[in-house]
Design brief:
Radius of gyration of chain A: 20 Å
CATH topology of chain A: Rossmann fold
Radius of gyration of chain B: 19 Å
CATH architecture of chain A: 3-Layer(aba) Sandwich
Helix content of chain B: 25-40%
Bound molecules: thiamine diphosphate, magnesium ion
Largest sheet of chain A: 5 strands, parallel
Shape of chain A: globular
Order of helices and strands of chain A: EHHHEHHHEHEEEHEHEHHH
CATH superfamily of chain A: Thiamin diphosphate (ThDP)-binding fold, Pyr/PP domains
Number of helices of chain B: 12
Order of helices and strands of chain B: EHEHEHEHHEHEHEEEEHEEHEHEHH
Largest interface: A-D, 62 and 62 residues
Oligomer: heterotetramer
Structural class of chain B: alpha/beta
Distance between the termini of chain B: 40 Å
């Protein structure tokens, strides 16, 4: 009488590269951002950083209502992923959603106005930081509920499939979200229906104050892909080029009917969980410092200048443009009117 | 007019709307070859194929979440929760996502989806398979809630719900599926938010929905012998509620009894009572009465279930009391 | 008497009960070294250690489910949901498991657990972080529901809830944490199911709970100038409800206004209105009025949030109307 | 710029044997049921089968209210697992819970009375087939909600830990349940807290009418253990001896503080999803026949007689006793009174 057999390795679908090499053009073709893509990524990261820094400053000055979760430190993920997306592609996002929206093409002025709760904001002042959406840009919404965007992304992927569109959906979420029932149900559904969805887990090592090893035992969240028999890939989330390459493979695969993947980006938020939280209660200053040494913007800028030989002036122009855009965004927001009271009663039903 | 069952009426609504609009599709547990627990979707797989009649895993949160995502991006999903009792699992997607996306996004999104489910007692299904949870949904702004009592209403309301651009929770009753009623051959719609006076009367208004409409009608028949003329108002849509119809009836009869299968506390019956106490208190000649399930989880034993659920006798007693 | 904050009062309740009974323990997201989102549990980790102050993953269904399992097997868990808005994720465990196990098992099980959470508006938290969902819980037989307005009540009720042998949903208010009030040094309990008349008056009964009690008291002060004497009744426990106290007050004043932060439909305010319309209709000299949040998801903009949530002005207008 | 790396095999915690050999006594000691255990397993399987057959017959004759899901075909799982449990150990169960209750020691008369909705039944007639519980026997309840017992089991395991008891909790559930959010959240919680819980997934290849491959892609559900970094084990669920050995290892490991495991038993329900469902709409007669060839009771009986040399008479005595017990159970139930109406209003609160 033999004991139960362990699941033999051979039968376990160990996570694998996102793309069987044959299904794609040669890696060289997809793996490196073009000149234009590289500049776009850089500009995106700068726009996110500048937006978040300005928003934090305004918040701390008591000028913004509600609360804010900033994306500072994680810019390479949104930028490296979304550069592959067309306007028709869709994303779902999180409470920490500004970066995703910017990377998917959102306007900073409309975002800033929303943070101020103004009528001109993306949601007419009714959503705020945690609910920025732009359906025309495929931004299906930030979300105040951790994990909730994941099944919604599956539904968006299903639409694309049923409508015969070659679009993909990217679901962004955190390490903490990977412990929600919604994660499990959403990935399983996308897997069995072979939907064009790329699940991007931004593992920034903490869910609020809770270190990843306290909330899950698995070392790499990407290994959870095995539970759905889809590929799981780990990427350095501080390196936009690595994100670019891995996401590019996954998105292309999904677009071509290859089904979902789970892409884990190892990253870090430089600031507290929300603006106002220092993080000191649960993170060690040295740890934060170590990660800041790998600031994704600094790393990418260095790559642009030193490895790819972009002229300093070109990069500096972008930086100046972004600064200007931020100033204009704040001005726009500040000069925008408050919503009308009757607006509160609108938009409940279509 | 031909008579068909509530089940058939629902299926016709699904079939007609799926033929009419390729964006309409179905998803839920065991709805494809099995035809659903109560066989409403039986046969639709054959006509529309597995892309449009989609069996899901046991993942209620993902069923509703996927419907939300599909609705946001141009489809018109009709998702099925096998029992309304399982909505606790999907409640975040229902109440925080489906209901609120449009509003939170400043009106820039539409979520045209129907969540079909069934509830109610009568089959000894016990505490986790016999609830009447409409109050949960009515309480959430952004959801419409429909509970048809007859095959005619079931078909016409489901078609309207599918064409509505908003999330509609459509709650059928497990005991009504085999019930028959007149349903025209030709196409028709029943608008949301319009009550139906199922029986006109003079002395007392009985507001009842879903299966309880039939119980109210039977009781009304019996009460004729007492010389009491009941008006039975079926709101059909609980949200948006046709308050005007209820108030009109109470203004006429001056007496109100509300009958429902759900428990009383914070329920639809409470809402109707509150509405009338706010808007038509002066018309009332007697206290309002709610006839509801007793305040317990639903017991399994048929004897106990019958005791807990409103009966004709309890309704009749309440009507007699307010008419005394 | 010394004054402490609502937050401190809650923490004292937890601390005292944990010292008193080793079976009491806490579980929830970020409640350990971080002390919880609103810092109620700060410091408890140091005293009681990580076995009794347990940080969980973001798994609301498992948090409540684990509490149910622990309660069934001899522990007395106090689980925390960071926001009542997240209860949609755990609603099955709350409503189908915690609430019904005892009944379904024929009385052979006890589920002594507290589900602490917080809700309400006032911080521009928008539609998914500012709800008042007490009606969902009140609607489910088998749950008790407590919503304290003052530090005194918060401490005394939480201690009682922890000692209760049943599942108690204990909903705090995010704006009340820093508010101070008198709390004795010595131990005391506040019983469940007993309302508190927060201000005695003659002309009109205002039923209000949680933060709205304070708003009612301020409005009552202002209404003195109109010559209107308000009685403010705080039920404190919404289920079981101290109906007698409400009826007693309405019998005295003949007028009823119900104030709450939740939306109206199928809410606690509906329930109180229905209760009075059933039991004390004859006492009423004016229609009942509900002053509630407008029927919308909660908007983010502070200006809109203030507009949607009941204000002193709206309450005063309603009171004046019923007293006219 | 390198593409994202796949999760390397080395870092994936591939499912492994339930027990590191060193942590336990020699396999020989634990792997084979003693004489007494073997007879207990056999009796348990017979009691379950007889109960279910009688209940089905009564149901089809219109004598039982509600609906019934029978455990026929899966007996080896409950019997092989629960023989390792003490009275103090606890289980959570499912809609298909009769077998688990019987194996954990429930009385057939009280169960039958509950199915009849009688006052003498386990739940006083208030629970019925789907809610049978006996807290004194550690049966924390069948459950009408698929997956819901899983986090409850984690909580029971936590109690044991916090109370310093060396008890374990077994959570039984089906293949369909492994797609619920509750599964994911419950296993993750048990894993991070290292709780003494054995998760037993009875993979009978269908969730109602839905074949396993339609509701999940992964071939072995046990591989999902990888997502929680706990051992995953597959066992032949038609062979009570295999179940005995694998469950014994897992339970012992959990009892000794080794934490949870996920044990998948490959099994089959011989009847429809509920009594009344033939299964013909979704299962092929040949498939059913093939599985019936491996009837767990027939297999185990053969083993007892042929491999272990139990005397036929001993086995036959058990069979006769079980038949008698069933007859008595039905008589007890039939002669029991209906609940009093006031019972409906009792037991809401303690
Ligand atoms: C369902 C739910 N539970 C809890 C919260 C409170 N909350 C907001 S963000 C957060 C942590 C999220 O962690 P992670 O997914 O890692 O994202 P990160 O904040 O690190 O970007 C928590 C617990 C929530 N918003 N939703
Ligand atoms: C949450 C939930 N969803 C759906 C159902 C309806 N239902 C009851 S049993 C079942 C299938 C369960 O499949 P599985 O877990 O494999 O167990 P099995 O019936 O095969 O023993 C379903 C869908 C339910 N009871 N609970
Ligand atoms: Mg994180
Ligand atoms: Mg199964």
């Amino acid at each position: 009488m033999a004991a139960g057999k362990s699941v033999p390795r051979a039968r376990v679908s160990v996570s694998r590269r996102a793309t069987p090499a044959t299904a794609l053009a040669s890696p060289a073709e997809t793996m490196t951002p073009t000149r234009e893509q590289a500049l776009h990524i850089y500009r995106t990261m700068l726009r996110i950083r500048a937006f978040e820094e300005k928003a934090s400053e305004l918040f701390l000055a008591g000028r913004l209502p509600g609360f804010l979760h900033t994306y500072i430190g994680q810019e390479a993920v949104a930028a490296g992923v979304c550069v592959h997306l067309t306007r028709e592609d869709t994303i779902t996002s999180t409470h920490r959603g500004h970066g995703h929206a910017v990377a998917k093409g959102a306007r900073l002025d409309l975002m800033m106005a929303e943070l101020f709760g103004r009528k001109t904001g993306y949601c007419g002042g009714k959503g705020g930081s945690m609910h920025i959406a732009d359906l025309d840009l495929g931004i299906l919404g930030a979300n105040g509920i951790v994990g909730a965007g994941i099944p919604i992304a599956a539904g968006a992927g299903l639409s694309a499939r049923m409508q015969g569109r070659a679009t993909v959906t990217v679901a962004f979420f955190g390490d903490g979200a990977s412990n929600t029932g919604a994660f499990h149900e959403g990935l399983n559904l996308a897997a069995v229906w072979n939907l064009p969805v790329v699940f991007v887990c931004e593992n920034n090592l903490y869910a609020e104050s809770t270190p990843r090893e306290v909330h899950q035992k698995v070392k790499d969240i990407a290994t959870r892909a095995i539970a759905y028999d889809i590929p799981g890939v780990v990427v350095d989330g501080m390196d936009a080029s690595s994100v670019f390459a891995a996401a590019g493979e996954g998105i292309r695969r999904a677009r071509e009917g290859g089904g979902p993947i789970l892409l884990e980006a190892k990253t870090y938020r430089f600031m507290g969980h929300y603006v106002g939280d220092t993080g000191a209660a649960y993170r060690d200053a040295a740890e934060v410092e170590r990660w800041k040494q790998r600031d994704p913007i600094v790393l990418f800028r260095r790559g642009l200048l030193e490895e790819r030989g972009f002229p300093e002036a070109e990069v500096a122009t972008i930086e100046a443009e972004v600064q200007r855009e931020i100033v204009e965004a704040v001005t726009f927001a500040e000069e925008s009117p408050e919503p009308d009271l009757e607006d509160a009663l609108r938009d409940i039903f279509a | 007019m031909r008579k068909i069952t509530y089940r058939e009426a629902l299926k016709e609504a699904l079939r007609e709307e799926m033929r009419r609009d390729p964006r309409v599709f179905l998803l839920g547990e065991d709805i494809a070859q099995f035809g659903g627990s109560y066989k409403v979707t039986q046969g639709l797989l054959d006509e529309f194929g597995p892309e449009r009649v989609r069996n899901t895993p046991i993942s209620e949160a993902a069923i509703v979440g996927a419907a939300v995502g599909a609705a946001l991006t141009g489809m018109r999903p009709v998702a099925e929760l096998m029992y309304v009792d399982f909505s606790g699992i999907a409640m975040d997607q229902i109440a925080n996502q489906a209901a609120k996306n449009r509003y939170m996004f400043g009106g820039k999104a539409k979520v045209p989806m129907v969540l079909r489910t069934q509830g109610g007692t009568g089959r000894s299904s016990a505490a986790q398979h016999a609830q009447s949870l409409e109050a949960w949904f009515i309480h959430i702004p952004g959801l419409k809630v429909v509970m048809p009592a007859t095959p005619y209403d079931a078909k016409g309301l489901l078609k309207t719900a599918i064409r509505d651009d908003n999330p509609v929770v459509f709650i059928e009753h497990k005991l009504l599926y085999p019930e028959t009623g007149e349903v025209p051959e030709e196409e028709y719609l029943v608008p949301l938010g319009v009550a139906d006076v199922k029986r006109a009367g003079e002395d007392v208004t009985v507001v009842a929905h879903s299966r309880m409409v039939h119980l109210a009608l039977r009781a009304a028949d019996r009460l004729v012998a007492d010389g009491i003329s009941c008006e039975v108002v079926d709101p059909r849509t609980l949200d948006p509620l046709d308050s005007a119809a209820i108030l009109r009836s109470v203004e006429k009869t001056s007496r109100l009894v509300i009958l429902q299968e759900a428990v009383a506390q914070c329920s639809f019956a409470s809402e109707v009572a509150a509405l009338v106490a706010e808007e038509a208190l002066d018309c009332l000649d007697a206290p309002i009465r709610r006839v509801t399930a007793l305040d317990t989880p639903m017991p399994f034993s048929p004897r106990l279930e019958r005791f807990v659920v409103p009966s004709e006798e309890r309704l009749i007693a309440a009507v007699r009391e307010v008419c005394a």
